[in-house]
Amino acid sequence: MALRQKLRRSTSEDISVYIKGYRCYSSKLDWNKLRPMILRRIEKRGNDHPVKSMIPVAEDVIINRARLFEGVSTLLGHYPIKACKFCPELYIGKEGHLIKTCHGYRRHIKNQVHHWVDGTLNDIIVPVEAFHLNKYPDIIKHDQRFDFDRIPAVLELCSQAGVDIFDQTLHSIGKDSLSSDVSTSPSDLTYLAVRTLKAWEDMREGVQKLLLVYPAKVCKFCDEVHVGPSGHKARLCGVFKYETWRGAHFWKTARVDDLVPQKIVWRRRNQDPLVLLDKGRNFYGHAPAVVELCIQAGAHAPSKYMCIMKANGSSPALH
User: Fold this and answer.
1) How many CA atoms does the CB half-sphere of 115 hold within 13 Å?
2) Please, what sign has the CA dihedral across residues 78, 79, 85, 88?
3) H-helix or E-strand spanning residue 130
4) Which Pfam family name is an example for this entry (predicted)?
5) Is residue 319 part of a domain?
6) DSSP secondary structure string, 18-35?
7) pLDDT tens, 108-127?
8) DSSP string for 249-300
9) How confident is the model over 164-190, as pLDDT tens digits?
10) Torsion of CA 197, 123, 227, 254, to 10 degrees
C-alpha cells in the first residue's frame, strides 16, 4: 500500500512538471476587466510618436521629393513621353511602341494596340493620396470622409513622423540649383538626370525606413492607401459587382511601391528596332519610368535594375 501511494505521488509530480511547459488557455481571466485596459492602450498609442530619430529621415524625404518633381518636370521638356488614352501604359520616347498590351479603360478588351497621346507629369509619377490626420484619431467612419483633407500619401507619412509638411523651406531646398539654370546642353541635362535619379532612390529608401516605424495600409483590391495603424471605414472600394453601393476596403500592410509606384515601362535597347514590335515582347527589357527617363538623359542605371533591363540580351531580329 505504501509503495502504491509513493508511485502515485511521483507520477503526479512528473505530470505537473510536464504541464508547466505549456500555456493553459482555460485561464480564469476576466476579459471584461481586461478590455478597458486594452482600449486605453489603443487610445494612448500616439503618445510615443513622433520618434525623434526619424524626423531627419522624413525631412530628407520631402527634400528629395521636391528635387524629383522639379527634375522630372524639366526633363519632360526635352524628352517627350507617350501615354495610352485608354489604359495606364506609358512609354518614354517620341513614338509609342506597337506591343499589344492595351486592355481598355474598363478591361473589357485585351491584347489591343495602344492609342498614344502626349504624357504628363502625373503619368510618370503616379499621384497616391491619403487622408490627412492631425493626430491619432478614432477610425474614420464613412460619413466622416469629407471632414478630412486628401494629401499625397508620402507627405502624410512625413507628417505623422513629426515634420511640418506645409513648411515651404523644405520644399524650396530641393529646388535650389537643380533646374533653374539648366540649359539645353547635354552636359547640363546629364547632371540634372543624375541628381533626379539620386533623389528618386533616396526618397524611396527614406519611405522604406519610415514604414518600419509608422505603419500604413493599402487595399487588397484597389489602390487606396491609408497611413496609420488601421484602415478607415469609408466605403470607397466597389470591388464587388453585385453591390449597389461601394464596399469597404480589405486592408493589408503597405509597401514602398504602394506609396511610390515605380510605373514599369518597356525600354528600347541599342539592338532593338526603332519601334518595338509585338513579336519581340519576350526579348525587350523593362525599367521604372523615372529611371528610364534619366537613362535617356545620360544617367547610369543602378545595378539592381539590370536584371529587368536585359541590356545585353539578344534581339528578336536574330531569331
Assistant:
1) 6
2) negative
3) strand 129-131
4) APO_RNA-bind
5) no
6) HHTTS--S-----HHHHH
7) 778 899 999 999 999 999 99
8) --EEE--HHHHS---EEEE--TTS-SS--GGGTTT-EEEEHHHHHHHHTTPP
9) 888 877 777 766 555 555 567 888 899
10) -80
Print the domain residue range for 162.
Answer: 52-176+183-305
Is residue 151 in some structural domain? yes
Grid cell in block for residue 170: 523644405
Which residues, in sequence order, are CB contacts of 26 under 8 Å at separation 6+?
A: none
pLDDT bracket for residue 133 (50, 70, 90): confident
Sheet holding 251-253, edge to edge: 225-227, 216-219, 251-253
Q: Tens digits of per-residue pLDDT, 240-270?
A: 544 445 678 888 999 999 999 999 999 998 8
pLDDT given at position 169: 77
Q: Using alpha carbons only, what angle is made at residue 196 by residues 51 and 214, rounded to the nearest 5 degrees?
A: 20
27: confidence class by pLDDT, cuts 50, 70, 90: low
Which grid coordinates belong to 15? Answer: 505530470
Helices (H), the chain: 2-19, 31-43, 55-76, 121-124, 153-160, 168-173, 186-211, 256-259, 289-296, 306-309
pLDDT of residue 318: 55
Q: For helices 153-160 and 186-211, what crossing angle results, to 10°?
A: 50
Burial class (CB in 10 A: 0-12, 13-18, 19+), 84: buried
Number of domains in the chain: 1
Q: In this structure, is residue 91 part of a structural domain?
A: yes
Is residue 46 in some structural domain? no
Residue position matching grid coordinates 547632371: 191
